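Assemble and predict.
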Amino acid sequence: MTEKNSVDFVRQIILDDSESGKHQGRVQTRFPPEPNGYLHIGHAKSICLNFGIAQEFGGKCNLRFDDTNPEKEETEYVDSIMEDVRWLGFEWEGEALFASNYFDQLYQWAVQLIKEGKAYVCELPAEEVSQFRGRWNEPGKNSPFRDRSVDENLELFEKMRSGGFKDGEATLRAKIDMSAKNMYLRDPTLYRVRHAHHHRTGDKWCIYPTYDYTHGQSDSIEKVTHSVCTLEFENHRPLYDWCLDAIGIFHPQQIEFARLNLTHTVMSKRKLLQLVESGLVDSWDDPRMPTISGFRRKGYTPESIRSFCAKIGITKTNSLTEIGLLEQSIREHLNTIAPRRFGILNPIKVVIENYAEGESEERDAINNPQDPDAGTRKIKFGREIYIDREDFMEDPPKKFFRLAPGREVRLRYAYFLTCNEVIKNDAGEVIELRCTYDPATAGGKSPDGRKVKATIHWLNADDAVDAEVRLYEHLLSFENPGDMEEGPDWLKSINPNSRTVLNNAKVEPSLASASVGESFQFERMGYFAVDMDSTAEKLVFNRTVTLKDDWAKTKKMK
RNA sequence: UGACCCAUGGUGUAAUGGUAACACAGCGGAUUUUGAUUCCGUCAUUCUAGGUUCGAGUCCUAGUGGGUCAACCA
């Protein structure tokens, strides 16, 4: 690996600030999720950035839940988010923080703004607020409540706080400029009335601050130096700055970067929620989901996700990253650490006619060619074995090198095998192959220098263990998620083959004791991880990712 | 229709006014008891037009294309 001496633009800003002595060289960031859903791979990008910066600059990074909307937020999400951040390999300093911790302070600052004539209570209904806001090319109109006296505002704000208004009857608004080019500066809402139970503060409040009024002040309270967020908040920055300056407190710098988009993947939390609620996926951690917990369950490692995040970089350019880059990242990691095993996804029985009935032997197999320390294991070999249906063709095309009638292949670590006869059922399906082996080729070596074009994996029939194997494909049929239909019909874009369950798979006996989450390479088939549905009676594997497969490519071209 | 932001191979990024590079993908080959891994080779890039400069991917202006914004969501 070559040392990369360039840094992304966010780190460049921080580097410049450090060198110029801004904040006395102190660096502090935060990761601010709203607890209204599970974290996804896009959040991983932000987590790696924020926590990564803190590590690199000897600063700290807070985990702060942006929990200002009680109707959507739940403790379940808080718990899953903390678990996912830790699983990714990051730890925040001290307790996890909540914007709701600052509700009292935020309220006091709101009172201060009222006293200074910078905020007022508006009783316009939401619809009219919107109309009064104007359009992009035409200025808005002042609210009729804009010029209330400080005392009246104070009184009404207290009435909001104490439950004197119903939901939607009043808001506290900043008094800025109804003709500002930036819509967020046209007297934005600071507080709204919501008689709702909050997951942390319970029923203490019936007014809740908005994101724009909360985020910057929370950053300020925590003494965050660099508040990194995604591009869609770019237009909010003038308001972020206005609030801090109007109140007159420590002023962090907001910096925006482009969020992650992946091919064949939906990333919006709203859509992911719909997938869960519609039952199109089983849960937030369904291995088809682009959530951190989904990838974890599918067999991704934290290292692979961090390495992916390092590769995609940080910019302000809207981009669409190929999901293949993520898949390659997990292959790279698993290749170095995953023990090799034999697994047969779709078995065909093979009877080796010249192998003595009732006899068996053990063959040595290498556990991981990338890691000599991983050693070897024994695999039982006998007269009846299974091979994968994909490794046999009765009428093979030109470039198919595997087993076919009259053809010889190598059984990996065992013997050369020749197919003599194909047995079919009434439906014409191949159900068994009658073969012979060459005893002189023990270990798969031919003393006469004879070559075979393919080596296939196999499993001894009488002690192979049954398993369920779940194969996954892209969740979304569309490559570009932007191309799919708007509205509820977008659910039709879900790939109907996103999951295939194989009930008849066979694996090595040693796998019976594998524990949930363990990863293996089933040789020639891909990487597989033990699913949490696995029991002593029934092993369940998720395919994490296929191996790169040139044969699959040429097959497709044909 | 206004404001703000963005624009480098197919994709993602680097080049900090001085030889346009890296990764992934693709293609070809070598090695291989995994059609994997590894290795080698190869294809292909500065949106357009002006300007500043000895010199522009980089700075300026305009255009074009894309994104965001008219929630009491974040």
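DSSP finds 13 helices and 25 strands in chain A.
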